[in-house]
Amino acid sequence: MGMGKEIRNAIARRAAKEIEPGMIVNLGIGIPTLVADFVEDSSVMFHAENGVLGTGPSPAEGEENPHLCNAGGFPITVVKGASYFDSATAFALIRKGLLDITILGALEVSEKGDLANWIVPGKRVPGMGGAIELAQKAKKVIILMNHTDKYGNPKIVKQCSLPLTSEKCVNMIITEMAVFTIEEKGLILREVFEPFTAEEVKNKTGAEFLMPEKVSTIS
Amino acid sequence: MNKVNAEKKNKVIEAVRAAEFINNEMTVMIGGFGGVGNPPSLIREMMESGVGELTLICNDAGFPHIGVGQLVTAKRIKKLIASHIGSNPNAGKQMTDGELEVIFSPQGTLAERIRAGGAGLGGILTDIGAENPIIEAGKKKIEIDGKEYLVEPALTAEVSLVFAKKADTLGNLVYDTSARNTNPLVAMAGDITIAEAEEIVEAGELDPEEIVTPGAFVDYIVQSEGVNWTWAWEKK
After folding, report:
1. Which residues of A touch B176 (CB under 8 A)?
2. Which of A84, A170, A191, B19 stands 20 to 30 A from A98 (CA)?
């Protein structure tokens, strides 16, 4: 994502605060994967859509089991109480609404919470994988992404121009500049990362947002 | 298909013989997810047999030199039904160039369509993508209790290939950690199912309680010789 390690970690650390004890959480690839590093509560169970509940940290070099991987194909370990199952069961868990949180990346998010993260027509058509199930069915969808694309265009927009993964599904957006929630009344700026100001966030955001009296600063 | 019971008493065959069941233009389903759980020795035999013009049903297109990705890279596949091809740029290029037809299905929907095929059902009803114009296009819809569902037809194959940790000589299968993934579903959905196992034991040696796929679904068993590729995460 062309983002420094410190910034990626800051975003992941902020996202980790949303995870409460006992939750079942699915992490997408990229920055979302880093979130696990900032969750200390051992009652949190991470879900992988290939068929694992209770994924743990990466194994030490030389201790990988090539058959034990996350959905991205990289070696993992499992925690106490983990279980293995087939991919149909992995998605049964998602569709039934048992995922408390999914944390994903995005190409665009609209002010209504529409998510586009799977197709750039004519350029990138990799297939949706499990993104539609995750976006449509997780109780809470958190998006971690760059505030703008590589040309500096806002990725938080009034209306998505790219094909949607799922509509009105995003509950929270965390970028290197700010934290937004998306609620009944619309897009709301909740926190701003230092050294940015709310004004700068406004200039880089392609949608109107509400600003409560108190917008906290994350240092 | 007429299968003679006597013939099925010993299901263990050589990998090279297994490849003889797969002919040009067949529909083949292969278990695995991101290369993990793809059957390496069966894929190697397919590469060596030269079989092509296949329709492949698989979770994804693997990586260029890993698992089913090798079949895609070697242009043996003319039609791919999968949920994701992002990890194999060759698949994307062939699709753009018009050499490979790709039909995408959401991952969980694809898994259930395979499961339905193996369970003798006609398809499934799901609300996944029901409001997504790309997913719902051209699909039949059914309303149940006021809620709209898409009809997603079942998938079956002429030959299913799976990877297991252990098989007994009757074809009962046990899988290895996350290499289970789509394998138990794919194992049920083939007219002929061939299981590649890391270890083959005598019938009775597996605890009935631990068996994931009953041997009735498995026609042939092949001894695995392990992967012949380097994983994406391995240091070269």
Report:
1. 67-68
2. A191
The answer to whether residue B228 sits within a structural domain is: no
Mean confidence (pLDDT) of chain A: 95
- Given an 8 Å threshold on Cβ–Cβ distance, is B179 in contact with A67? yes
Interface test with A, best of B105, B181, B196 (most A CBs within 10 A): B181
Nearest by CB to B178, from A50, A94, A166: name it: A50
Q: How far is A67 from chain B (nearest CA, A)?
A: 5
* Domain count for chain A: 1
- pLDDT tens digit sequence for A42-60: 999 999 999 999 999 999 9
Catalytic site positions of A: 49
pLDDT band at B9 (very low <50, low <70, confident <90, very high): low
Residue A97: per-residue pLDDT = 98
Residue B162 inside a domain? The answer is yes
The residue type at A129:
G
Determine the residue of chain B that is closest to A59 in CA distance.
B233
* Structure-token match 């370990």, residue found: A77
Whether A88 sits inside 8 A of B176 (CB atoms) is no
Task: Read off the pTM.
Answer: 0.95
B163 pLDDT above the threshold of 60: yes
Q: How far is CA A87 from CA A52, A131, B33, B105, B127, in A?
A: 9, 14, 9, 14, 18
Number of domains in chain B: 1
CATH code, domain carrying A121: 3.40.1080.10
For residue B160, give the CATH number of its domain.
Answer: 3.40.1080.10
Is the confidence at residue B4, as pLDDT, over 70? Answer: no
DSSP string, A90-107: HHHHHHTT--SEEEE--S
- What was the pLDDT predicted at A29? 86
Containing structural domain, residue B20: 10-126+155-223
Instruction: Answer yes or no: do B92 and A126 touch at CB < 8 A.
Output: yes
> Comparing C-alpha atoms, which of A183, A139, A180, A137 is closest to residue A156?
A180
Which residue range(s) make up the domain with A146? 5-218
Of A71, A75, A166, the CB nearest to B233: A75
Question: What mean pLDDT do residues B60-75 have?
Answer: 98
